[in-house]
Amino acid sequence: MSGWMTKKVLLRKNYGSTDTITADDFADADQWKLNEYLECKPGIKGNKQSKTFGEYPMYYITAHVQRKTAFYMWNTVLILFVITALSFTVFSIKPEEHKDRLGIIFTLLLTTVAFKLVVSQYLPTVSYLTLLDKYVLGCIIFQCSVAVENTLASVIKDGHSAWVFDSVCAAIFAAVVLLAHLVFGRIIWMKMNKNNRELREIEEKFKRLSERVDKAYEERDMTQQGSTKTNIIIKGFTDEEVQEFDQSYESDPEEVPLKL
């Protein structure tokens, strides 16, 4: 934000320079994928509490990053999947021996809870549930459901009925786990495609604007004698040309023709 009010100065995009960023010195390159194109646009900030100070020009520079999921898939999702799959081992024990079954399932449940506390240290502190949070909570709810089923199976007096109930519940749990992981994988795939599509749109918008600016340079060199690209970078374009660039940057190139 500028220290001068809009009456004295206005900030605007310099179309003579390229809005890019290099990832060579990016400290978190192992966790984040940095987009090389920056989204830059001017703005105005006012004081809503008092009109005495007026409005001040702003210049917003947005860098787009995307979290790399390989670390969380191998170190979190895979381990939780193995712990959840081990919950099915209790069905190899007879329903009458509910103490052994509950001992195993509660041990796995405590392991999952402890693992969640460790994983939460690597996740951002936000007020909503992330996709990984939902997966961890889903594993905890599943293990609690298995514990409840083991308790109900031990209450049934008839051994054959308890075995049938136990077998049916095991099949239902297996189907639920398989379906839940298919849905989870589908959601991850859709989110990754959405993020990649948004990044591609930003790159296409940037490249489209660069092509139009380069074309404007060529047209200026042909129509105005002595107006080289170096001079334009220093002096900038006219207000009318900047307005045309701003419109083309926010709109479709076919809808807004560039006038020089």
The gist of it:
It contains six helices and two strands. By secondary structure, the chain is mainly α. Helix 1 (70-86) packs antiparallel against helix 2 (98-119), helix 1 packs parallel to helix 3 and helix 3 (131-155) runs antiparallel to helix 4 (159-223).
Core attributes:
single chain; 260 residues; mainly alpha; two-stranded antiparallel sheet; 6 helices; elongated; disordered C terminus
Low-confidence stretches: 226-235, 253-260
Question: What does the largest sheet look like?
Answer: 2 strands, antiparallel
Shape: elongated
Strand content: 5-15%
Distance separating the two termini: 31 Å
> What strand order characterises the main sheet?
1-2
Overall number of strands = 2
